[in-house]
Specification:
This protein is mainly β and 75 residues long. It contains no helices and six strands.
Length: 75
């Protein structure tokens, strides 16, 4: 996977597969997401552990970003 790691705040709306999420000072890589209703999501990590993210939970994550790929509307 190409690109650089960019640190960002994420919530249940913006979390994505492949994000490296920081929980309790440890890094976990998101393998799968399941919507649970009421804006919650269950994150499954490559380590096999799970975490339920409420609608208002905010976490720090590292996400790969390729600066050569333009985002948004081309001008």
């Amino acid at each position: 996977m190409k690109g650089v790691l960019v640190a960002m705040e994420i919530d249940a709306r913006t979390v994505a597969v492949g994000d490296q999420v920081m929980i309790g000072g440890q890094s976990f890589v998101v393998r799968d997401l399941t919507a649970l209703g009421a804006g919650r999501k269950r994150l499954e990590f490559h380590s096999g552990e799970t975490f339920v993210m409420n609608r208002t939970t905010i976490l720090w994550a590292a996400r790969r970003h390729d600066p050569r790929i333009p985002r948004g509307r081309p001008w």
